[in-house]
Amino acid sequence: MINQKLPKMWYGGDYNPEQWGPEDWKEDHRMFKLAGIDVVTINVFSWALNQPGENTYDFAWLDETMDRLHAEGLGVVLATSTAAHPAWMAKRHPDVTRVDFYGRKRTFGGRHNSCPNSKTYRKYSGRIAGKLAERYQDHPALLLWHVSNEYGGYCYCDNCATAFRVWLQDRYGTLDAVNKAWNTRFWGHTFYDWDEIVLPNGMSEEGEGNVSAFQGISLDFRRFMSDSLLDCYKIERDAIREHSKDVPITTNLMGTFPQLNYFDWAKEMDIISWDNYPSLTTPVSETAMVHDLMRGLKDGAPFMLMEQTPSQQNWQAYNSLKRPGVMRLWSYQAVARGADTVMFFQMRRSIGACEKYHGAVIEHAGHEHTRVFREVAELGQELMQLGDMLLDARSDARVAILYDWENRWAIELSSGPTVELQYASEVHKYYDALFKQGIQADLVSVEADYNQYDIVIAPVMYMVKAGVAQKAEKFTAAGGTFVTTFFSGIVNENDLVTVGGYPGELRNLLGIWAEEIDALPAGQYNQIVMKKPFGKLEGSYNCELLFDLIHAESADVLAEYGSDFYKGMPVLTVNAFGKGEAYYVATSASAEFLQPFLKKLCEDRGVEPLIQEVPPGIEATKRVKGGRSFLFLLNHNAENAAVILGDGKHRDLLTGSIVQGTVELSGRGVMILEKA
Ligand code: GLA
Ligand code: ZN
């Protein structure tokens, strides 16, 4: 449980009372009660208010706010206010503002704008976090600490350059080792002095859109920036911990956000929280995958849905309203996948600046007679009824998909073989094929212990870090099914190619070697031609993007390419390895191929889908807790849909009714079923 003080699914979100006055606050509280809201996140962007000058602090407004919220029966997620520095700080200490990708020094403005290696920023952010903790550690409303907000953005200033050199000295020891790791004899980039190393940006090695002439330095810069921002988090966290010993600490993450290695971050956080902002057209399985990834950050522990909009965003090109029922549906999607909170940005729409058209629980109309408010209030009642039933429930998936930020950086920085390869989309293809068949998967780090799984899928495992190949071998030898794809096993963690034939360190496990890699533009295909039926796979399937030209060594060939000069070469292989099997899919396969392919692997291992037939637009997922098992059925269609349940009777926890056989889910409807 996140905090014993509130033993239910938390319901609420970001609240900025400092933008309003006493009359509005009264209305806020009246409406919060109507909506069943019991927790608010405050003080996210109030640094300037809290610290009017170098050595002056003024927490009077916050004292009053905390007391008022408590008196009104609300719990507080207390942010540290450091996500936007005050104007006076930028003026007096120019080192707090960042330098951008083109070397331009930023002036004051915006948010998430502080240089992570600024001594000023580190000093003052740590100091205010400590002061807040000292002041509010025992406040009865306090439930959780929320450090800064959505960390992100890189800085290219001189302080960052200096810090980068120190980071490199720590990682490599000698300049000689750096030169080797980055292969600097290429284009004559050998460094003789640490000071010769400059940051890779638009003035040096990089161009727009992850283009780099030197992947080694660009990769290390990303690691360094992720670490630098994480250090800022740690400074505040440690300052809080000096006073507030037990209240959990988090910062809100952003799903597959490319810039930070969240597996590293998770180690420093007490609970994962994240902000979910899909658009009208985001595939529901993509949102599901990201929830699963957030759950995977801390070995399957429940996470917080820290923000979502009750209706629309303001920062997308087209800020569509969430259709009636969709807010509830997507809230339960988060819960189904491990969230123990449902929280919004924002409680009340502001009247000025860029978020005035961002959805809120209390809209500009200012009263409760709105569609959005009614939907929020209905959900609030339901969450109240669910009480603590689902808290701490976990997934018991037997399939794992590996996800790795450093691998993503390396793939997307790579010059060649194609500009189209997007790591997260390739992962999503595999995830989606399982999702559409009601097979639950966990997303886990390459460093995780995956022995508990029957099947481990590693889409595009381009970078093989030290020890990972041995781990995959051990897992397979012990009886696991391992699956990997094209463009895998190519480089080590410095993006240096493992020579002797791809897939390098994975060659022994897979029993193949790849001689060449073909790339075709979007819309051009080859085919996966099955040699004989494999489960329901039979005949020919289109494939695209990249095509490894492989030779089978100890592996069996299940399918061959259907055209071009490599027609007849293997495209799908399986290698018996110890008690298990290792599959190689040498190209980017379509859903028509991946669904039956993964189905067959699951059948071979006795991994059952959650429901036998998954109608289009239906999502099935499960959480388990102390011998109880909760099956969530979500209907993402606007129309009703029928779902065939397995044997036996089930209780729908939302209505209390008993169902069996075939159930009718209303359009955008949700059921949480437990065996009766
Ligand atoms: C982010 C931020 C919030 C707000 C929302 C708007 O998630 O954390 O402060 O700006 O976006 O969608
Ligand atoms: Zn900087």
Automatic annotation (TrEMBL):
Record-annotated Glycoside hydrolase family 42 N-terminal domain positions: 14-385
Limits of the Beta-galactosidase C-terminal domain: 617-675
GO MF terms, alphabetically ordered: beta-galactosidase activity; metal ion binding
GO cellular component, one term: beta-galactosidase complex
EC class of the enzyme, as a word: hydrolase
Active site, renumbered: E150, E307
The enzyme's E.C. designation: 3.2.1.23
Tree of life domain: Bacteria
GO BP, one annotated term: galactose metabolic process
Chain positions recorded as Zn(2+) binding sites: C115, C155, C157, C160
Domain Beta-galactosidase trimerisation: 397-607
UniProt-annotated binding residues for substrate: R111, N149, W315
Catalytic activity: Hydrolysis of terminal non-reducing beta-D-galactose residues in beta-D-galactosides
Keyword tags: Glycosidase, Hydrolase, Metal-binding, Zinc
UniProt record similarity statement: Belongs to the glycosyl hydrolase 42 family.
Protein name: Beta-galactosidase
Organism of derivation: Paenibacillus dendrobii
Lineage, uppermost ranks: Bacteria, Bacillati, Bacillota, Bacilli, Bacillales
